[in-house]
Amino acid sequence: MSAIKKEYKRITTKSLVEMKANGEKISMLTAYDYTMAKIVDSAGVEIILVGDSASNVMAGHETTLPITLDQMIYHASSVVRAVDRSLIVVDLPFGTYQGNSRKALATAIRIMKESGGHSVKMEGGQEIAESISRILTAGIPVMGHLGLTPQSIYKFGTYTVRAKKEDEAEKLKKDAKLLEELGCFGLVLEKVPSKLAQEVAESISIPVIGIGAGDGVDGQVLVTHDMLGMTHEFSPRFLRRYLNLYADMASAFKKYISDVKSGDFPNKDEQY
Ligand code: KIV
User: Fold this and answer.
1) Rounded to an integer, what distance in angstroms lies between the CA atom of residue 169 and that of residue 189?
2) Which residue minimizes the CA distance to atom 1 of ligand 1?
3) Which residues are bridge partners to 142 per DSSP?
4) pLDDT confidence band for 270 (50 / 70 / 90)
5) What is the pLDDT of residue 175?
6) Ligand 1 atom closest to Cα of residue 223
7) Is 52 near ligand 1, meaning CB less than 6 Å away?
8) Is 118 helix (H, G, I), strand (E, B) or coil?
9) Which letter, b or e, does each residue of 9-41 get, where b requires 16 or more Cβ atoms within 10 Å of its Cβ?
10) What atom of ligand 1 comes closest to residue 150's alpha carbon?
11) Residue 181, in any domain of the structure
């Protein structure tokens, strides 16, 4: 399908659905702070995700579970101050929406009021349908997240590809349809076979954004620190590194240390 490129001054949930209908692929990246969000937004990415991956990337936790609602609000409000055009999606952190739809609504309202983000993302299907519905009744746009859902890592025990078995694939397809019916504006599909992801994307009208979900979906998302090569312990097959910033930054730091020690920095032009 050929992509009809329309210029959008600001990306809204409506623009994204329109882009899917027009066959234009959607780009999405994470940001957790003002400086990174400014660069990502000015580059023209459509969606900035304030992901709970901040728990790993910014705080060094092994999983996404420990990050708190206050910490997510801090990251999201830093991103909001930087962004002029992208749609900002903020993850609801683990433990703030599962099993209690009133609490879920209160969480989403705090995120919208205190950070200024534009929408929220939640992991799961049928199990969290009541929470999603309640949040939607308050006029808060919701993005779903199916496939590998890192907040449930202790239930599954591994970060391997999801929905390879027929019964899991059937549940995923049903959940995707349900999320569309409930009124979600989009869906992240993480680490699932590309054939299944394409089938899901073709069966619903809302955009499906993949991470490790192949080329048959409506857009792609990566963790910015991973695609810039700032992280280097993590090398899944789906990750394309556009830079090797870990090595470049380490060599800049080494050069700085040696310049300080040798007295080369500061030179005569770098002082008052
Ligand atoms: O938190 C995050 O960064 C995410 C992406 C991996 C989609 O949910």
Assistant:
1) 12
2) 51
3) 120
4) very high
5) 98
6) 3
7) yes
8) coil
9) eebebebbbebbeeebebbbbbbbbeebbbebb
10) 8
11) yes
Indicate the top mutation candidate among 26, 30, 47 to test ligand 1's pocket, ranked by most ligand atoms within 8 A of CB.
30
213 lines ligand 1 (CB under 6 A): no
Cα 93 to ligand 1 centroid, rounded to whole Å: 11
Q: What is the identity of the amino acid at 63?
A: T
User: What Rg do the C-alpha atoms of the chain give, in angstroms?
Assistant: 20
**Average pLDDT of every residue of the chain:** 97
Residue 88 lies in a domain: yes
Please list the active-site residues. 190
Q: How far is the CA of 121 from the centre of ligand 1 (A)?
A: 9
CATH number at residue 45: 3.20.20.60
d(CA 71, CA 114): 11
Q: What is the pLDDT of residue 90?
A: 99
Give the mutation target among 149, 188, 234 for probing the ligand 1 site: most ligand atoms within 8 A of CB.
Answer: 188
pLDDT band at 3 (very low <50, low <70, confident <90, very high): low
Owner of token pair 């929905």: 163
Q: Is the distance from CB of 151 to CB of 65 less than 8 angstroms?
A: yes
Check if the beta carbon of residue 79 is closer than 8 Å to that of residue 37: yes
Asked whether residue 7 is domain-assigned, the answer is no
| Cα 145 to Cα 20, 118, 129, 211, distances in angstroms | 18, 17, 12, 11
Ligand 1: residue of 47, 221, 222, 225 to mutate (most ligand atoms within 8 A of CB) is 221
- Does one domain contain both 189 and 267? no
The domain containing residue 251 runs over which residues? 245-272
Does residue 180 have its Cβ closer than 6 Å to ligand 1?
no
What is the residue type of 130? E
- What pTM value is reported for the model? 0.97
